[in-house]
Amino acid sequence: MAKAATVASVVSSLRYLFSDFIGDEGGDPPALPDGLPDCAGAIVSSGIALLMDYQGAGYAQLYVDRLKRFIGRPALDAALFGEMARLMALRMSYEDPMRIAQLKLAEAATPAGGAPVRPGEDIKKFRLDELIGALPAAVAEPVLDGLEWLGRTHQPVAISFSTASRWGIRRLKIEAGLRRWRLFSIRYGKERQWVERWLHMISRCLQKQPMAAAAMVQTATMIQGYGDVYRQGLADWHAIIDGLAKPTFDGDLPLTDLAAALAEARAAAAPDPRQAALKRAIAEIRARALAAAAS
Questions:
Q1: What is the pLDDT of residue 22?
Q2: What is the pLDDT of residue 129?
C-alpha cells in the first residue's frame, strides 16, 4: 500500500514537472478535494494560493493529491488534518534563491491603498552546494562533482537581494523567473523525498500510535529556512525519525509513548553539526524503553 502511494506520488511529480517545463505556470487553481473537513477548507485554499504563486497550478495540484491520501483516515481529526495541510504548504514553498527573489519583489510592490515599501537590500548566506543544487540536476551534478573534488562544496556565499536600483529589481525578476526550472533541481528532488517520508511517518503513526500523530505532524517545524539552519534541522529530523519513530513502527523498539519521546529528543536538539546532545538523548530514550520492556 505504502509502495503504491510512493509510486503514485513520483508519477504525479513527474507529470507536474513536465507540465511546468512546457510553460504551464498559470492555469486555474485545483479544486478543493471532496470530503475535506469543513474547518480545513480555508487552510487548504490558502495552501493552494501559496503554491500557485510559488510554482504554478501543477504544483498546487500535487499538494491537493497528497492531501487526498489522508481524507477520511481514522484517528485524524479535522484540526490535525488542517495543521498537516498548513505545514505541508509551508514546506512545499521552501526558501531557495528563487523564492527569496519572489518575496523581495512582493515586498517592494505598492500595497493597495498604501505607500510603497522603502527599497532595501537583504544579504542572505548560502552554502555553495545549496546554490548549485537549485539549478537543474543535469547542470548541477557535474559542477558539484568538481566542487567536491576541490573540497569547496560547503563554502559560504553571500548573495544580495536588492530593490534599491533598477538593476537590482531586474536581477530579482530574472532570479524569480528561474522557478520554471525548480522541479528539475537537486533540491526539489530532496524536498519531494522529505515531504513523502514525513507523510509516510504520519500515516504509520496513525496506524501504530495515533496519540503521537500530532507530535509527528509538528516535526515539520524542525526544518526551516536555508543554509546551515536548514541543513541542521534536516539532519536532526532524520536522526530522530531513524532513531526513534521508524524502529518503533517496525517493532524493533518497544517505545510506548512516542509523543513524549519526540518532544524529549527535540528539546535536546542544538545547533551542533556533531549532534552530540541529540544523539545522547536518543540513546537514553532507547535504553529506557528497552530496559522497561525487559523488566
A1: 38
A2: 85
CA distance 227 to 95: 10
Q: End-to-end distance of the chain based on CA atoms, in angstroms?
A: 36
Domain boundary among the residues 64, 93, 122 is at 93
Identify the segments of the chain with pLDDT beneath 70. Answer: 1-26, 110-120
Please tell me whether residues 39 and 118 are part of one structural domain: no
At 111 the pLDDT is 59
Cell representation of residue 20: 511546468
- b/e code 5-18 from CB counts within 10 Å (16+ = b): eeeebeebbeebbe
**DSSP code for 119:** P
pLDDT of residue 159: 85
Which pLDDT score, from 0 to 100, does residue 25 have? 55
Q: Which of 80, 72, 41, 27 is nearest to 202 (CA)?
A: 80
Of 240, 231, 248, the C-alpha closest to 269 is 240
Amino acid code (one letter) for 163: T
Q: What is the dihedral of CA 8, 12, 14, 18, to 10 degrees?
A: 160
Range of the domain at 165: 97-107+114-184
Confidence (pTM):
0.86
Do 175 and 192 fall into the same domain? no
**190 and 291 part of one domain:** yes
Domain boundary at 154, 184, 214, which? 184
93 close to 59: Cβ distance less than 8 angstroms = no
Helix (H) or strand (E) holding 158: strand 156-162
Nearest to 130 by CA among 159, 94, 154, 104: 154
Amino acid at 174: I
Number of domains forming the structure of the chain: 3
pLDDT score, position 263:
98
**Rounded CA gap, 7 and 110, in Å?**
44
Q: How many residues does the chain have?
A: 295
- Contact status, residue 105 vs residue 172, Cβ threshold 8 Å: yes
